[in-house]
Every structure is written in C-alpha cells, then in structure tokens.
Design brief:
Helix content: 40-55%
Number of strands: 7
CATH superfamily of the largest domain: DNA Cyclobutane Dipyrimidine Photolyase, subunit A, domain 3
Oligomer: single chain
CATH class of the largest domain: Mainly Alpha
CATH architecture of the largest domain: Orthogonal Bundle
Order of helices and strands: EEHHEHEHEHHEEHHHHHHHHHHHHHHH
Length: about 525
C-alpha cells in the first residue's frame, strides 16, 4: 500500500497508529501537518503469534487497519504502511519501526497511549535505541484518564466498580437527576438478568453483519494461508471494519436489541450466539466508535421512550462503569498484575478449549460458537468457559492467553483484568469482591444447555454427575478457609456443612479424576504457540 502523498523531508513527526487506534481524531493527530508529518502503520506476524491468535481476531485487525489506511489517504495524510506479506517484512512491530526510523529519520515519534504494555515497552525501546524522542499522548477515547483512576484508588483498601461508576455518573451527569441517580436507584439488577424460561427466546432480532468487501476477502485469504494452523474459521466473518459500518451497527442495536438488553443480558440459549447484546465491543476497542456516541445514542432512545430505564442503565454501566474500571485496574496494576495467581491454580487449560470437543453441552456450544465467530457474550465467558477454568484450577495465565487469542474484541487492557480478576479471582479480590463460583444449577437456570446434556447439574458424584457441580463443591472444599472469610461467600461455604465426610471424600475423588483426565488430554493435544 503506497502513500498517495510523498513523505515529507525533513520529517518532523512520525505518528504511530496501532491496530487498535483507528480513530482519525486521536490525540496523536493533534497538530498534524501533511507538509511535515507522516503516519506509520504496520501489519506484523508477531501480533498474531506472541499468543496463538485466532483467525477471526487476526483478520479483523488486519482488514480494519487496511480500511483505515484508505481513510487516511482520503484525508491526504502521508502514510507509510507495511503489509503482512510485504517483502522483507521482519515480522515484529519494533523491527519495522526501527527500519523506518533509520530510513526517514523523523525528529520525533508520536503515539496515543497503547492499550498493551508489551507494545508500549517495545516502542519505547526502539525510540531509545534510535535516539528519537517518543511522545505518548493521553487516549481521549475514554471518559476518565489513568490519572483519574489512580486518584480514585489512592488510599482505598478495596477497589470496587460501584464506587468508581457512581463517581463517573456524578462527574458526567449521565442518568442523573441533580445529585441523585435518575429513577432513584444506581442500578436496576433486580429488573434485569432474567432467563428465557422453558419457551426460549423466540424470534430474536438478527445481528448486524457486513459481507466482506474486496479488501476483507484479500485479508481472509491471506490469514487462511499464513495462519492456517491457528484456531477458528473465517467462513462467517462479517464484523464491521469501518467507522461507517460501526455506526450502522450501533444504530441497529439501539433500535432492535437494546430495549430487551437489560432483561436478557445474562440469558443463554443453545445455538443462539447473538441474542440481545450489542456486539459493539470490537468496534469500540478498535476506536471505530467512541463511547460517548454510544452512550449518547442510548440516552436519546431512552429519552424518546423507546428503551426502558433498566435496560438503559444496564448498558451504560457496561461502558461508563465496567469498561473504564478495568482499564484503570490494568494501567495502575501492571506489569505485576499479569503474574497474579492468588488461588495457586496450576492445571493446564483443557485441550477442548481449542476444539469444543466435549460432552458438556454448555461448553461445547460456547466454545464452538467462539471459534466460529470470535465472539461470546459476557455471561458465556464468565459463567461457562471462565467458570469451568476457575473450578478446575487452570493456571490463570493460560486462561488469559486463551481469551486474548480467541475473541475479536480482546486487547490486553480490557481482557486481562476481566480474565485474571473477574473470571479467575487470581488477584485475590482486588478487582471484584468474590470469586464467581457456581454449580451446574446456575447454567441450568440461565439456559437450556442442560436439557440436551448427558450430565445432571443436580448430581455431584457418579457417572451422571455434572463436572461443574462436582468441581464447584471441590472448589469450596479446597478453598474453604479462605472463602469463609469473604462476606459474600459465607452462605456458600456454610452449605459444606450439609455434606458428610464420606460425601466430601467422594467429591474430592471425582474431582481428582476429572483433573487427571483433563491433564492427560492437554498433554496429548497441546496448543501450538
């Protein structure tokens, strides 16, 4: 991809645009002049191989980058763009940048703060080696800055979403009535989070999908050839890859699915991937959508009476609350956060996480859906794939790498805290107040998966026992001392008193057999990477 304008000489600023920074209004462009500045972008194999990135995730990044590059040329911004299959592409972001610095000799590098500490460290190292100043600018894509979160966290013994979320509501005035929450409540969980019941979801609004254009088709062919052994498939690739497409997806979500989002945000149903969720997180994390426009569209629909307050608040909390909160956790706790393992979990990730080949109906459905679309909604991630890994005792870093690999919206700033903190409780309660431990009965209540499964969620031992239920009781037994001190786990731990010594021994023995079988399968089918 050649620049439409010559690269200025001498070159004042080289503006680095990463694959998750596809915003023409980003802070890195402040003061940009086509007369003396240029933009730099690079596709490199390293970003798909430092973890075993799925085909869906890799393809989304590459095609979105190529479409954004076209947009930059329309804006007459001089562009240096390295494609994955260019001759002499060294395969790493740092080395491509080093070559560019040696050739074009800019007076300074400018970048909006990266969402991955590994990438930022690599950029800083190259800039230092080449003796080129690197200016890192604040990411305006968020409502709060890292400094804002650090100020909130200072002096607190615990960090909790609810308090940070309320601060942001008050600061922005979103869903506020003066200094009080609109409607008199900060959240409406009691009005949300229903199951579909035995009749199922009925006719669900279709997702907004975009058939691959010529650029995307070229990327699909490239990824299938270059990363043939990587997980997943591109047969159903149809994600928004431009800002215009992302805006269309937003409008259709607000019109067709947001009204029932709150009510069914935690519900699951066999074979139903999309349901009432937004499917906008990938577009937002690539910066094709700004959270302010997403919330503005939501509030407009609420004001017009098209969306109830409960659904409005539930969706706003995911963006204004949770998304901002996990970003603050990431940037204030890294790099040490990556290595947290407070529950001393050391089992390997089960091999079926890469295939979906398991008799457990819920895991089979969610994993196969994930590999097909690069997508699963938050309860499928937290209370199916994440829950099983937590109960089994999988090394949290392996769980983190799997989530970073398979989901199209996975960028480390948002994925890592969600996985290590929320899902695996590996931070010991820094991010969330309790481990999200549950038996198979939770999945039975929130889905129809158990109807077609050979395992019984009410049974914890024997051939029909649900592995979730066996491992749930085993999890409580293994961590009883620690969990009994957690106010939100006291009632669950107290239920252990209902079990006899013989029942406890049987549960522990069955759990040990499950781990032995999982370990053997993982050794036989280790994932490349």
């Amino acid at each position: 991809m050649q620049p439409t304008l010559p690269i200025p000489r001498p070159l004042r600023h080289l503006v680095v645009v990463l694959g998750d920074q596809l915003d023409e209004q980003a802070a890195a462009f402040d003061g940009f002049s086509s007369d003396c500045d240029a933009v730099w972008m690079a596709e490199v194999a390293e970003e798909s191989t430092h973890i075993w990135s799925s085909k869906q995730r890799t393809a989304l990044f590459l095609t979105a980058m190529r479409h954004f590059a076209l947009r930059l040329t329309e804006l007459a911004r001089p562009l240096l763009y390295t494609k994955l299959d260019d001759d002499k592409n060294p395969g790493s972001l740092a080395e491509v940048l080093r070559q560019t610095l040696q050739t074009h000799k800019p007076k300074a590098l400018i970048v909006t703060e990266p969402g991955d500490l590994r990438v930022r460290t690599a950029l800083e190292a190259v800039a230092q080696d080449c003796k080129v100043p690197l200016l890192v600018r604040t990411d305006r894509h968020f409502y709060s800055t890292v400094a804002d979160f650090a100020a909130h966290a200072a002096g607190r013994k615990q960090l909790r979403l609810e308090f940070f979320y309320r601060e942001l509501r008050q600061k922005t005035g979103i869903l506020m009535d003066g200094n009080k929450p609109l409607g008199g409540q900060w959240n409406y969980d009691e009005d949300n989070r229903e199951s579909f019941g035995h009749k199922g979801p009925g006719l669900v609004p279709p997702p907004t999908r975009f058939p691959p254009d010529e650029i995307t088709q070229q990327v699909i062919a490239l990824v299938n050839a270059r990363f043939a052994s990587h997980p997943g498939t591109l047969d159903d690739f149809a994600w928004p890859v431009t800002r215009a497409q992302a805006q269309t997806a937003l409008a259709e979500f607000v019109t067709h699915r947001l009204p029932d989002f709150g009510r069914y945000q935690d519900a699951m149903w066999e074979g139903q991937a999309w349901l009432y969720h937004s499917h906008l997180s990938a577009a937002m994390n690539l910066k094709l959508l700004d959270p302010r426009e997403v919330i503005a569209a939501t509030l407009d629909a609420f004001a017009a009476g098209r969306v109830p307050l409960a659904a409005t608040e539930g969706f706003v909390r995911q963006i204004l609350g949770w998304r901002e909160y996990v970003r603050g956790i990431y940037f204030t706790q890294m790099p040490g956060y990556l290595h947290k393992n407070e529950l001393a979990a050391h089992e390997p990730l089960p091999a079926f996480y890469w295939t979906g080949d398991t008799d457990m109906a819920c895991l089979r459905d969610v994993i196969r859906q994930t590999l097909r679309f690069g997508y699963a909604h938050h309860i499928q991630r937290l209370m199916v794939t994440g829950l099983y890994a937590l109960l089994l005792g999988v090394t949290p870093q392996q769980v983190h790498e799997w989530y970073l690999s398979v989901y199209v919206d996975a960028i480390e700033w948002v994925e890592l805290p969600n996985t290590l903190g929320m899902s695996q409780f590996a931070d010991g309660g820094l991010l969330g107040s309790k481990p999200y431990a549950a038996s198979g009965k939770y999945i039975q209540r929130m889905s129809n998966h158990c109807q077609g499964c050979r395992f019984d969620p009410a049974v914890s031992v024997g051939p029909s026992a649900c592995p979730f239920t066996t491992l749930y009781w085993d999890f409580l037994l293994r961590h009883e001392s620690r969990l009994s001190k957690n106010p939100r786990m006291v009632m669950q731990v107290k239920n252990l008193s209902r079990l006899s010594a013989e029942q406890k021994a049987d549960i522990s023995a069955q759990a040990a057999r499950l781990r032995d079988a999982s370990r053997a399968g993982s050794e036989a089918h280790a994932a490349p990477g």
